[in-house]
From TrEMBL:
<dbReference type="GO" id="GO:0051213">
    <property type="term" value="F:dioxygenase activity"/>
</dbReference>
<protein>
    <submittedName>
        <fullName>Dioxygenase</fullName>
    </submittedName>
</protein>
<dbReference type="Pfam" id="PF00775">
    <property type="entry name" value="Dioxygenase_C"/>
</dbReference>
<keyword id="KW-0223">Dioxygenase</keyword>
<keyword id="KW-0378">Hydrolase</keyword>
<dbReference type="InterPro" id="IPR015889">
    <property type="entry name" value="Intradiol_dOase_core"/>
</dbReference>
<dbReference type="InterPro" id="IPR036573">
    <property type="entry name" value="CBM_sf_5/12"/>
</dbReference>
<feature type="region of interest" description="Disordered">
    <location>
        <begin position="1"/>
        <end position="23"/>
    </location>
</feature>
<comment type="similarity">
    <text>Belongs to the intradiol ring-cleavage dioxygenase family.</text>
</comment>
<feature type="domain" description="Chitin-binding type-3">
    <location>
        <begin position="256"/>
        <end position="302"/>
    </location>
</feature>
<feature type="region of interest" description="Disordered">
    <location>
        <begin position="80"/>
        <end position="105"/>
    </location>
</feature>
<dbReference type="InterPro" id="IPR050770">
    <property type="entry name" value="Intradiol_RC_Dioxygenase"/>
</dbReference>
<keyword id="KW-0560">Oxidoreductase</keyword>
<feature type="compositionally biased region" description="Pro residues">
    <location>
        <begin position="235"/>
        <end position="255"/>
    </location>
</feature>
<dbReference type="InterPro" id="IPR003610">
    <property type="entry name" value="CBM5/12"/>
</dbReference>
<dbReference type="Pfam" id="PF02839">
    <property type="entry name" value="CBM_5_12"/>
</dbReference>
<dbReference type="InterPro" id="IPR006311">
    <property type="entry name" value="TAT_signal"/>
</dbReference>
């Protein structure tokens, strides 16, 4: 199945003219990313050859006036939260918890990694990321969970996804869908894109602010993208050589019922919380801050 998402739901794409600055917050980011991030490319000369002949060559793309476009949007002073985009017609709740998306059809290996930040550029631990994408032929699995999966950021806000480069389908450039949610916060639904794909210029949903930084990685490619969620944070003390601390735990809302933290729930489980009944959409281990009213990606109210 391969049909369009609704381009009319989106605002026109716009470039991100803001170069990453070296600030206290970007220093925080650098400290967090040490030892985790994939190699990045920052110039148009660093073109990446693709093994898949269906795919475009991935390159960094020129910005206005031929200047290199800023690489992966970095979390720095004055940076805006990651923009949202349409969910499209192919989201399915209940994806497995995994960092590896698989399915038939082959494809160019791809890893996507990055950090989930809040507005003060502090990493967010235990943020939920739910990815879904087309296979190498541009088709979504609507009867199972091929190329679908969710995961949580680690204590330093990091995530890592192993998958393939998605195929093209009519009306769309290459993209990966994702929902990102910090504990007890609203869901950000958005999409990630690849630089240098010719269809970027004809896809009305595409937005360069959502471009990953892409580099060759063995026989495949590696994408990097950091999310900035619209979540207020205490900016904390000035930077030191030590990594920043995790955000403070959230206080659970008034509850009561059969739901419990630190319990393994499976899709279809039914609990009560705060006088309401909820059905589990995705298998997970519960925790304080992930009470059913706070995580609609995990619990559906009856
Ligand atoms: Fe899509």
């Amino acid at each position: 199945m391969s049909t369009h998402e609704d381009p009319a739901a989106q605002s026109p794409p716009s470039a991100d003219p803001t170069p990453p600055g070296i600030t206290r917050k970007s220093l925080l980011r650098a400290a967090v990313a040490t030892g985790f991030a994939v190699p990045l490319i920052g110039t148009a000369a660093a073109a990446v050859a693709m093994a898949d002949d269906r795919s475009a060559k991935f390159t960094t793309v020129p910005g206005p006036a031929g200047a290199p476009l800023a690489v992966t949007p970095a979390c720095h002073d004055g940076d805006a939260p990651t923009i949202d985009q349409t969910e499209g017609p192919y989201f399915e709740p209940g994806s497995p918890q995994t960092t590896v998306l698989t399915g038939p059809g082959g494809g160019t290996p791809l890893t996507v990694s990055g950090v989930v930040y809040g507005l003060a550029c502090q990493p967010i631990a235990n943020a939920l990321l739910d990815f879904w994408q087309a296979d190498n032929g541009g088709n979504y699995d609507m009867s199972g969970y091929n190329f679908r999966g969710h995961q949580y950021t680690d204590s330093q806000g990091r995530f890592s996804l192993t998958t393939i480069v998605p195929g093209l389908y009519p009306g769309r450039t290459k993209h990966i869908h994702v929902k990102v949610q910090a504990p007890n916060q609203p869901i950000l639904t958005t999409q990630l894109y690849f630089p240098g794909v010719p269809q970027n210029s004809t896809d009305t949903i595409y937005d360069p602010r959502l471009l990953m930084t892409v580099t060759q990685h063995g026989s495949g490619v590696a994408g990097a993208f950091d999310f900035v969620l619209n979540v207020q944070q205490d900016p904390g003390p000035p930077p030191t050589s030590s990594p920043p601390s995790s955000p403070p735990p959230t206080s659970p809302p008034p509850g009561g019922g059969t739901w419990q933290p630190d319990h393994t729930y499976a899709a279809g489980d039914v609990v009560t919380y705060g006088g309401a009944t909820y059905t589990c959409l995705q298998g997970h281990t519960s925790m304080v801050g992930w009470e059913p009213p706070n995580v609609p990606a995990l619990w559906q109210r009856q």
